[in-house]
Design a protein that fits this description.
By secondary structure, the protein is of the alpha/beta class. It has helices spanning 10-25, 39-48, 56-74, 92-101, 115-128, 141-144, 169-182, 199-205, 212-228, 289-298; strands at 2-6, 80-84, 107-112, 133-138, 155-159, 188-194, 237-244, 249-256, 260-264, 269-273, 278-285, 301-308, 314-321. Bound molecules: S-adenosyl-L-homocysteine and N,N-dimethyl-L-histidine.
């Protein structure tokens, strides 16, 4: 009942080496957020979802717990749920429950870059949903999207958690165009997006009092230490999270506390940081309904459903190919 294809091979290691070299040699320095998610990074993200300041997960759960049946009816009662960046699939259970209750549930396809969490999620789900076929894909969804299996029949592709906000506009546009190309008539995309709100709440959500987000951010340095033989001192950097109102996104960085040199033996590279220098590790874009409508339109898609939590903090939108 479980089949998981892993597409993280020598290719993935070479891609990481190339990305990190380019990011550290650029000015300003930058690392891609997909490198947060080793086993520890996935655990830290799960802790973030439970923080009092981090409202997006609770808001998305509220929508899914109240409106999954309606969402699935609007999506034509699909038999297959594909989920990009599935992680622990904690909130996805609401969609799977509604599919089971409607008698349409056949296949779940988790797609995630983190191998450990994808295996854990798959084995929990086959126990929880007797008869469910899980056909997982461990890969970088920006590289291997077209490997998502097609079982025939209507599909819903869910991209939850606001992860689309971690892509730059150009990446996002290219990604949505590729998703659109995967959608046959009758298939739908269910997209989770955080909405624009006051700076104070946004900045608190990404700089929690317990310091979990700071630890999550610094974990990318531990990943480089292990994977690329680097010698980053995690205590020599601090977490920075600012809202950029013009770009409508959170801007998350690591700031060097001192002048320092870092060696990356695996890349045969030594780089210097000056005291106060900042390296971006993630953006997290916030949306309005109007902005999303135009984002869909330019990717040859159209908005078909809009679901928000009672406070209006977060939205799930249903879209199909135009
Ligand atoms: N959907 C879950 C998890 C969100 S965290 C939720 O809503 O809570 C983002 C998830 O996307 C992580 O599980 C991470 O491993 C995965 N991810 C991030 N970048 C990725 C990429 N390029 N390819 C595949 N998975 C990615
Ligand atoms: C996964 N992604 C949608 C999270 C976000 O809110 O952008 C990652 C995150 N980074 C810091 N906190 C949470």
């Amino acid at each position: 009942m479980i089949a998981i294809d892993v597409h993280l091979d020598a290719d993935a290691a070479a891609t990481m080496a190339r990305d990190v070299r380019a990011g550290l040699c650029a000015y300003p320095k930058e690392l891609a957020p997909k490198y947060f998610y080793d086993e520890r990074g996935s655990q830290l993200f799960e802790q973030i979802t439970e923080l009092p300041e981090y409202y997006p997960t609770r808001a998305e759960r509220e929508i899914l717990s109240h409106r999954s049946a309606e969402i699935l009816t609007s999506a034509g009662a699909p038999a297959t749920l594909v989920e990009l960046g599935s992680g622990s699939a904690a909130k996805t259970r609401h969609l799977l429950d509604a599919m089971r209750d409607a008698g349409s549930l056949e296949t779940y396809v988790p797609v995630d870059i983190s191998e450990e969490i994808t295996h854990q999620t798959a084995s929990l789900l086959v126990d929880e949903y007797p008869g469910l076929a899980v056909r997982g894909l461990v890969c970088d969804f920006e590289q291997h999207l077209e490997r998502v299996p097609d079982e025939g029949g209507a599909r819903m592709i869910a991209f939850l958690g606001g992860t689309i906000g971690n892509l730059y506009p150009r990446q996002r546009h290219a990604f949505l165009e590729r998703i659109a190309a995967l959608l046959s008539p009758g298939d739908h995309l269910l997209l989770g997006t955080d909405l624009i709100k006051e700076r104070e709440r946004l900045e608190a959500a990404y700089d929690d009092a317990a310091g979990v987000t700071a630890e999550f951010n610094k974990n990318v340095l531990a990943v480089l230490n292990r994977e690329l033989g680097a010698d980053f001192d995690l205590d020599a950097f601090e977490h920075v999270a600012r809202y950029d109102a013009e770009a409508e996104r959170m801007d998350i960085r690591l700031r060097s506390l001192v002048d320092q040199d870092v060696c990356l033996d695996g890349l045969d590279l030594e780089i210097s940081f000056t005291a106060g220098e900042e390296m971006r590790t993630e953006i997290s874009t916030k949306f309005t309904r109007e902005r999303l409508e135009s984002v869909y339109q330019s990717a040859d898609m159209e908005l078909r459903g809009w679901f928000t939590d009672a406070a209006g903090d977060y939205a799930l939108s249903l879209a199909c190919r135009a």
